[in-house]
């Protein structure tokens, strides 16, 4: 087991390296393929009003004139050792771990992102609890009562749910429940949990429900399909044949096997959301990581965007790692060799 | 499937076959191809057929949007101050859901009074074009790599499988946002809408091939051990021939199913990117872009209603049809 975890850990580090390389490529190679020069890129960091000399100096100081591998190495090095950028007569210090330095905001990127993590985490975990309970129980009931009115209605709703864009349902629910009826908080409100847990829950209620409903729809469909497949397996027949109670058959034999793949998808979804629920956060104007990314793009603040991409890719890789390890624990069929 | 103590015998016998089979047995027994069987099943699935009809209508609307708008409506980018309240700058609507007169069917949008009906129609063009071509790209990349990985095995399989895992684990939206954000206004000899459309097709298509590749690889792994592949090889067929003529025809069903189910995902994806402002840029009409403008006018509900409804109906239609197609083509489901 330990050996397996260590091997997966190495795999995760390797994945992170590749992901960072691809990210780096997106930000440093793609603009060049598109015809941009080092000076064009530098002008984004020093502002459009800077003189050509200042831009050229910045391009050199930022290392934009170096080749790709040198630049990638410098960037990787900065994560562990920090980095100083010296141009225009000032020094910009980015302490380790340095995921980038925003020359527009004049601050390192990582602390900003970490500041916003609690918002995104509150949103993701709150919604996750709701959608797991709602989605999985609906899916199981639908599968057990296959063809019933409940099954048809639930699957009809679920199909509608997976066809709805979150930014539309979010918008419509804001208009109805917040601006119209005044039951929930207006868009943009957020209270940290340590300040007032009740206000925290009140502010997040609508985003939670909206996000959870869409995910519930997908999970209900997945659970139902998995459950139907499992309940048709031979070992379920065996379990019934040896006289087990139906409830034991369903929970111990059916549900456990059906839920393993769901657990995998759940881990990945939460990891994905923790890396920034971009659409939900911009719809509800929640000051989380996703909103940070969108604001950075609007401001063309590329170091921020890049820091965000690496950060959320990291979450997904870590989520993958956890899921693999948990999977090995709960599914006896996974061979560790 | 009957599960229970008495299931072991009855399982072997096809139970509950529709009586329609009886009249067929009077004639000579005809072999039916998978396509024919699937079509018969699909025709019986009302929801899937409804989805299919809506899809055809949507495609027609998208293709003929300029003609429709010309004949009955207004240009999507022209302003209609006559439909606006001069005092409040809010759109006037005489009927529910924003309709102003027989030509402004869905009303106009604030603040300039562009016609929502024609913008929704033009939005369908962008949405479907990007979704279809991006899906095509994913299918080509995914099916090719999945086929190669499954058939060749060894280190090629290892390499492709790892790349597959990587792409499946990617925060696709995040990367798409990053890529769409770094491309300048003019690049690769293209500019404006053309550049953004090509860009979105490549981004969405390129990051979405993982799932298709996994499906195709899995199917290829089991297919290549089958006798007909052995037979073909022993007759002297080369790998390229076996891949194209023996394996690919057997993979059409899963590829078709997952392509159909990928289209709605891609529609939502494009709408999301345009909503976030990194997709197609204004003033070009897109559903996501209209919703992103509508955020600022939440007191005018019809503005956000129509583009959202268009997304919902389109995605639902593709999902219905895709689900039906899967049930019809997959022998395991019945």
UniProtKB/TrEMBL annotation, chain A:
Domain (ABC transmembrane type-1) ranges: 117-327
User: What processes does the entry annotate via GO biological process terms?
Assistant: transmembrane transport
Q: Which UniProt keywords apply?
A: Cell membrane, Membrane, Transmembrane, Transmembrane helix, Transport
Which cellular component appears as one GO term in the record? plasma membrane
**How does this chain sit within the bilayer?**
Multi-pass membrane protein
Entries under InterPro entries matching the protein:
BPD_transp_1_N (IPR045621), MetI-like (IPR000515), MetI-like_sf (IPR035906)
Record has rRNA-binding as a keyword: no
Q: Where are the transmembrane segments?
A: 9-30, 123-144, 156-180, 200-222, 257-279, 308-330
Q: Which CDD domains match?
A: TM_PBP2 (cd06261)
Please give the Pfam families that the UniProt record associates with this protein.
BPD_transp_1, BPD_transp_1_N
Q: Where in the cell is it found?
A: Cell membrane
Q: Which family does it belong to?
A: Belongs to the binding-protein-dependent transport system permease family.
The protein here is known as: Peptide/nickel transport system permease protein
TrEMBL record, chain B:
A GO BP term here is: transmembrane transport
Renumbered residue ranges of the record's region Disordered:
1-27
How the protein sits in the membrane? Multi-pass membrane protein
Which Pfam families does the UniProt entry name for this protein?
BPD_transp_1, OppC_N
**Membrane spanning segments where?**
47-69, 126-152, 164-183, 195-216, 247-269, 303-322
Q: Signal peptide: which range, if any? A: none
Domain ABC transmembrane type-1: residue ranges: 124-322
Q: Which UniProt keywords apply?
A: Cell membrane, Membrane, Transmembrane, Transmembrane helix, Transport
- Kindly list any coiled-coil regions of this protein: none
Q: Which domain of life is it from?
A: Bacteria
Q: Which family does it belong to?
A: Belongs to the binding-protein-dependent transport system permease family.
Its recorded name reads Peptide/nickel transport system permease protein
């Amino acid at each position: 087991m330990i050996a397996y975890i260590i091997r997966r850990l190495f795999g995760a580090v390797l994945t992170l390296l590749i992901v960072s390389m691809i990210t780096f490529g997106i930000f440093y190679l793609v603009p060049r393929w598109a015809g941009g020069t080092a000076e064009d890129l530098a002008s984004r960091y020093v502002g459009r009003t800077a003189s050509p000399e200042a831009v050229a100096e910045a391009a050199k100081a930022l290392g934009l004139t170096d080749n790709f591998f040198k630049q990638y190495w410098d960037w990787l090095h900065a994560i562990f050792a920090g980095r100083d950028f010296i141009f225009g007569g000032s020094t910009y210090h980015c302490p380790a771990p340095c995921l980038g330095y925003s020359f527009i905001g004049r601050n390192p990127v990582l602390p900003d992102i970490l500041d916003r993590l609690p918002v995104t985490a509150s949103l993701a975990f709150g919604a996750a609890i709701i959608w797991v309970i709602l989605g999985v129980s609906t899916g199981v009931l639908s599968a057990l009562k296959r063809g019933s009115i409940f099954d048809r209605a639930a699957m009809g709703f679920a199909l509608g749910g997976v066809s709805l864009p979150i930014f539309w349902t979010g918008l419509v629910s804001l208009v109805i429940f917040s601006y119209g009826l005044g039951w929930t908080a207006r868009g943009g409100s957020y209270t940290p949990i340590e300040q007032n847990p009740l206000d925290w829950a009140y502010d997040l209620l609508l985003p939670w429900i909206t996000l959870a409903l869409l995910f519930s729809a997908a999970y209900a469909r997945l659970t139902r399909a998995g459950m139907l497949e499992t309940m048709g397996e031979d070992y379920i027949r065996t379990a019934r044949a040896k006289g087990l109670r139906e409830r034991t058959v369903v929970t111990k034999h059916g549900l456990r096997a059906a839920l393993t793949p769901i657990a995998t998808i759940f881990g990945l979804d939460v990891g994905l959301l923790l890396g920034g629920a971009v659409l939900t956060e911009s719809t509800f104007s929640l000051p989380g990581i996703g909103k940070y990314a969108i604001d950075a793009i609007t401001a063309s603040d590329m170091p921020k965007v890049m820091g965000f991409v690496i950060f959320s890719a990291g979450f997904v890789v870590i989520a993958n790692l956890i899921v693999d390890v948990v999977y090995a624990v709960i599914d006896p069929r996974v061979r560790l060799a | 499937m009957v599960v229970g103590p008495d299931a072991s015998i009855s399982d072997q016998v096809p139970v509950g076959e529709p009586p329609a089979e009886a009249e067929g047995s009077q004639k000579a027994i005809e072999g039916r191809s998978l396509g024919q069987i699937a079509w018969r099943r699909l025709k019986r699935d009302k929801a899937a057929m409804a989805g299919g009809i809506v899809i055809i209508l949507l495609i027609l609307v998208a293709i003929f949007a300029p003609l429709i708008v010309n004949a009955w409506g207004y240009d999507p980018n022209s302003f209609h101050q006559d439909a606006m309240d001069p005092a409040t700058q809010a759109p006037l609507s005489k009927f529910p859901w924003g309709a102003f007169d027989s030509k402004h069917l869905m009303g106009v949008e604030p603040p300039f009074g562009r016609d929502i009906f024609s913008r929704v129609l033009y939005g369908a063009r962008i949405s479907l074009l990007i979704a279809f071509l991006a899906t095509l790209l994913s299918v080509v990349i995914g099916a090719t790599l999945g086929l190669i990985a499954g058939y060749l095995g060894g280190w090629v399989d290892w390499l492709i499988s790892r790349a597959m895992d990587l792409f499946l684990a990617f925060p696709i939206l995040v990367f798409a946002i990053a890529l769409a954000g770094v491309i300048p206004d003019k690049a690769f000899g293209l500019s404006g809408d053309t550049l953004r459309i090509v860009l979105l097709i490549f981004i969405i298509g390129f990051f979405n091939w993982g799932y298709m590749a996994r499906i195709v690889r899995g199917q290829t792994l089991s297919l290549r051990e089958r006798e007909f592949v052995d037979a073909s090889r022993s007759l002297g067929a080369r790998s390229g021939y076996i891949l194209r003529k023996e394996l690919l025809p057997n993979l059409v069903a899963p590829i078709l199913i997952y392509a159909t189910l990928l289209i709605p995902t891609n529609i939502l994806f494009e709408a999301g990117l345009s909503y976030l402002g990194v997709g197609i840029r204004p003033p070009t009409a897109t559903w996501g872009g209209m919703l992103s403008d509508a955020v600022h006018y939440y007191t005018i509900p019809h503005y956000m209603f129509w583009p959202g409804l268009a997304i919902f109906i389109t995605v639902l239609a593709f999902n219905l049809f895709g689900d039906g197609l899967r049930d019809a083509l997959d022998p395991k489901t019945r």
